[in-house]
Amino acid sequence: MMRFDNDNLTEGYIARHTPTGSGAPGREAAIIDIAQDFLLSYPKNDNKLRGEEKMIRENDRIRTTVERNGYPRGTIGVVVSLYSSGPACEVELWDEDGYPIDVVTYELTEGELV
């Protein structure tokens, strides 16, 4: 497992991952590679990254905690996709009989695992 200096990215760590003579593009690629390794080094439900009890993932069943698009708080659904651009997800909402009725965007903090 990789170790990070207090979860801080240091110039030395970047330099060790940058191919010799690759310049700025190699440095950028090294930073992306290190970031991926950093994220993969944490267990899926690690509260250090999210500050929450459990991390919401695709295909998780959730209960909404806010009213949105006319659907009341407490509506049950399944996370069908997570946004890479921010802390939001698409949730397929279900009716009382368990049939899908709509897909609505929620912030990750606006749902709780069921």
Describe this structure in words.
This protein is an alpha+beta fold and 114 residues long. The chain has three helices and five strands; from the N terminus they run αααβββββ. A five-stranded antiparallel beta sheet has the order 4-3-2-1-5, with no helix packed on it. The radius of gyration is 19 Å and the shape is rod-shaped.
Please name the defining characteristics of this protein.
single chain; 114 residues; alpha+beta; 5-stranded antiparallel sheet; 3 helices; 25% helix
Task: Give the C-alpha Rg.
Answer: 19 Å
- Give the strand tally: 5
Average pLDDT works out at 81
Biggest sheet architecture: 5 strands, antiparallel
Helix content: 25-40%
- Give the termini distance in whole angstroms: 31 Å
Quaternary state, please? single chain
Q: What structural class should be given to the helix and strand makeup? A: alpha+beta
Helix and strand sequence: HHHEEEEE
Total of DSSP H or I helical runs spanning 4+ residues: 3
* Low-pLDDT regions: 45-49
The backbone outline, from C-alpha atoms, is rod-shaped
- β content, as a range? 25-35%
Short synopsis of the structure:
25% of the residues lie in helices and 25% in strands. The chain is built from 3 helices and 5 strands. The chain has helices at residues 11-17, 23-40, 47-50, and strands spanning 61-64, 76-82, 88-94, 100-107, 111-113.
